[in-house]
Amino acid sequence: MPVVKVGIASINHKASIQLPASKSISNRLLIIRALCEHDFDIENLSDSDDTQLLQHALEHADTLTDFDVDNAGTAFRFLTALFAIKTGYRILTGSERMAQRPIAPLVNTLNALGAKISYPITSGFPPILIHGTVLQGGKASIRAHISSQFVSALLLIAPTMEQGLQLELKNTIASQPYIQMTLDLMRYYGIAWEWNGHVITIYPQKYRAKNILVEADWSAAAFWYEIVALSEHAEIELMGLQKNSWQGDAKVAEIYEKLGVQTHYHSDSVVLTKTKQVTDFLEYDFLSVPDLFPSVAACCTALNVPFTFTGLQNLNMKESERVTVLIHELMKFGFQPVYQNPATVSFAGFEKKQRHETVVCDSHNDHRIAMALAPLCIMNYNISLTDAECVKKSYPNFFTDLQSAGFFVKTS
Fold first, then answer.
1. What is the spatial distance between Cα 100 and Cα 94, in angstroms, rounded to a whole number?
2. Measuring CA to CA, how many Å separate 363 from each of 360, 369, 386?
3. Active-site positions?
4. In what order do the strands lie in the sheet with 307-310?
5. What is the mean pLDDT of residues 335-359?
6. How does pLDDT run across 127-141, given as a tens digit for each residue?
7. 357: pLDDT strictly greater than 80
8. Most distant CA pair in the chain: distance in Å?
9. Are the C-beta atoms of 303 and 259 separated by less than 8 Å?
């Protein structure tokens, strides 16, 4: 596996970065296009591994029977729903880690609606065998506390069901902004819906083709916010971001304002500048925006800002056991964040920072862990990061962009 060494060369006080396209928006658009009677153009489609894997599966949906989406969780969940309504037999599988990530809530709901999905190896987990059929639709429920992608997968195919879908979301709703993103994109393509309390209703309808430009990824922006927060002086322009975004992770601007980063909005970009206004304590519930946790947690520990973060109960079911892994890696720097319970992490600060050391970090094949750890070199560490190619999952040019901003980056 490639090892990337990251350090400080001559951090530019000013840099302009073209962020990658939103993976979340791109993946939803690909499914909508597959369900639409007429083709349409998607400009600035994400070049992430996840999106490319999904696109490849969709392009070969009528010619192949075995589909391996590696570690792409969104692709796996969206394809599970799509293949459930597409005639034919298909096997859907993924990486070793994917086989440890539950799929039962989505499969159970689809099967209750008339789908024919089974487990050839382990009940409740990938791989799955799908016999596509026509779904009648109607009333259904799903446990919404595990993954919003289960909900989004059902919503995307709901207009094609003969009776539509009245979906009850049970338990706490995880990552609610991602469900809202799905519904907003569906509305953009002509689908009317109602969301009352815990029930979303979508009647039988047809998607209407319309060209679209994918906005840049606010989730990727988090790591540039972290860089500015850790720098003495910085001014970073992030191209392609919009203030009025479909993405819930635009909340990153609000969070980092408390960590000394001011956001200036322009027509098609934001400019981040360093301020001296850093909070003495940060408390935040990440249930709605879990992808922001690694960046914010790494930043707070490096800045010695005590925190209590909640809403983390689903993060250990991501590409890695994300909370456990991040704590383990941060401890290598001398930081000591601790679990309070499965949903909460706290950090009380420390008295002495260790500096000028080389720290060997393992990304655990998790793109957000890798990108959260790399900026810590600003605190006068030299970092060797294993499995660094995992950033291709969402931000293929991450290390190239770091170089353009003055970081030392060497791959071996």
1. 10
2. 10, 6, 6
3. 291
4. 282-285, 307-310, 344-347, 338-341
5. 75
6. 999 999 999 999 999
7. no
8. 64
9. yes
